[in-house]
Protein 1
Amino acid sequence: MKHNNTMTPKTVFITGASSGIGEACAIKFAQNGYRLILNARNTDKLKTLEKTISNTYGTDVLILPFDVRNRAEVEQKLTSLPEKWQNIDILINNAGLALGLDKEFEVDIDDCFTMIDTNVKALTLITRLVVPGMKSRNRGHVINIGSVAGDAAYAGGSVYCATKAAVKALSDGLRIDLYDTPIRVTNVKPGLVETNFSNIRFHGDKDRAKKLYTGIKPLTGEDIADVVYYAASAPEHVQIAEVLVLATHQANGSLIWRE
């Protein structure tokens, strides 16, 4: 439901907002009258997205460029928000990545630590900084972008799968910790989504990334944004705790039927 113009728009903070699912979420919420705090490392992409959203939807946008792995920078940025942006209503922990598809005993250890730092530690830190404000205001919603990979390990993905299993555990634990409040917690677990995700995973090898989507119609960032928005806009007594979203011909993290 779109916000009434007489109401103060809710504020949504999205990490990893410069492309893919994060960008699609930004556009979806802007279309529905929310104002946005957008984070990513790429300042130029954020500025372009800010201009597009402001010109198209007239939505207030605050861009917040920083690397979610940099604890000092994260803490500085989130504790010094301008007053009008301090009351975050919805946190979408979207920043995340997979790197490589190697066996656990052969994987690049730097890739391992980057995935853990981004997918687990950064999500935990940002949640820790944002949720106390929600608790004090007695309202809010945390939406974590997990993955089907968090349900079971697959070949070459053990560390990434472990990080997304952690996202599930963190989501479930936070929901338990907040069960006596009206703050909702949602874990959205996408399957095969065609974004820049695979280009990053394969370190810019576009041909290898493209093969991942051959013979199947994958999900899009917009598909996941629709699910995220549905969870956020559900009636206040409804908590969408967890959603697994797969392409029609995908059965789980590793079983995909291709034409």
Note: Helices lie at 20-31, 43-57, 71-79, 109-137, 158-177, 197-201, 206-211, 221-233.
Protein 2
Amino acid sequence: MNSSNNVLELINVSKSFEHPVLKNISFNIRRKEFISIVGQSGVGKSTLFDIICNLTSYQGTVVSTEKIGYVNQKDLLLPWMTIEENITFFQKLAPDSFPITEPILKIFNLKNLLKKYPSQLSGGEKQRANLYRNYISNKTLWLLDEPFASLDFLTKEKMYNWLKEITKILNVTVLFITHDLNEAIFLSDKIFIFKGNPAQIEKIFIKPFNFPEIKRILIKNNY
């Protein structure tokens, strides 16, 4: 990597299934940055996450200095286990995991939920538990694939503020997929606009954002 402060670097990353999906994707992410990826459905955003996690073959180079945690719309909590059992189960899978402590449970608003089962939790509570599993497993680079898409508007608003706060407290780096431009603008330090087939990065916006230009590009791409 070009800088010791970079935690993820992609160089000319491409991917094809029957047809090309991604073409020559290159970018760096610095420690503690919050990056959002915005683009049409099917443009290859989730495929990019699979590549970064080494879940699929690809062409190009991916280098990460951090342990990666992947969270999507589904919470993936084991339904027959309590929240505490879910957390300790995944904790055992990571030999360098952190201990469960009351201050961190408080940050994740989970202290009073440990004895409950996933079916007894709201969507926002499930995602907080899912993100806590990331943290306790010592995952410091979080790939979040539309984690709030299934939540109602008021719950989303609360989760935005909460996520923005905890990522700063815990010093984690986030790569975030969203279809919601307002979500991206509120949460992010940078926004990557993906377009095309195969997809490429059309534009990178850096905070403070030029909202009219972002909107113009999305309208031009029929987004």
Note: Helices lie at 45-52, 83-93, 102-107, 123-136, 153-170, 181-187, 211-220.
Protein 3
Amino acid sequence: MKRNSLIITTLLLICIVFLSCKEDKSPLIGADNYVVSQKNPLKKENKRIVSVSTQVTEIICDLGCMDRLVARTDFCDYPLEVTKIQSIGGVSNPDIEKIISLNPDVVITSSMMPKKLFALLENAGLPVMSFKESNEIEGMYKVIDILGKLLQRETQADSLINDCKQRLQKTKAACDSIQKAKHISKPKVYYVVGFGASGDFSAGKNTYINEMFALAGADNIAKESINWVFTKEQLFKNEPDYIFIRKDDVEKFCNLSPYNELKAVKEHRVIGVDGMDAQTPRSISLIEFISKKIYE
């Protein structure tokens, strides 16, 4: 679920106008990838944070600020240590009363949180920041940058972003070198989102996963699909060289007809992965992993 773009734009403009009237202007004002509570300005120091976003939780940990998290969601399970922190429920249906009782300095969410819940937190007097979903790595960099400012960890944020960029450049250079040396084109890949009786689904254009494949030097056969739908007919017509799927689903997929007739299945090139939807620095490790697998 995504917020209506008009609502996001309106809230952001109101937020900017409201906060700019304050003498203590926040350096976060004016970013285009988040909205902030129009009623309750952000604080200078944020030592008690409730994260209602798996992306935010993971990046906060990457910035060395796990100790500031007073609550997370049920889905915030990486790194493993974060699971010791109490949960406030789901991403789209958190326990609002519990959040309020924790008296956080800021509640950070994603656009998956319904507008009415955002309003409830606002009306409770809590500063709330909500990041918009992004389909690009650049969007992830922006989140790191903004959280770095919010947590006063700008140096760590810059270092993290630079490390990600350097690793991606190295991966691209390696892919280009292999393609040139071996005179080969980009290997064709397919990511299994859904399969079986319920239908076939994969990551198409305008998805974060599609960009991950592109950065890994791969050709996503579902890149032109819309709304995640990719039929069995399309899958067999395009015959991927490699198939990526959640680790828990590998065995079932490889033994289920007609998927077991795919060339990649027969040649044992179905690779289990987890965290493909994590828009965090962990994505870079996955891109490196994918690239090594398809070019080894």
Note: The chain has a mean pLDDT of 89.
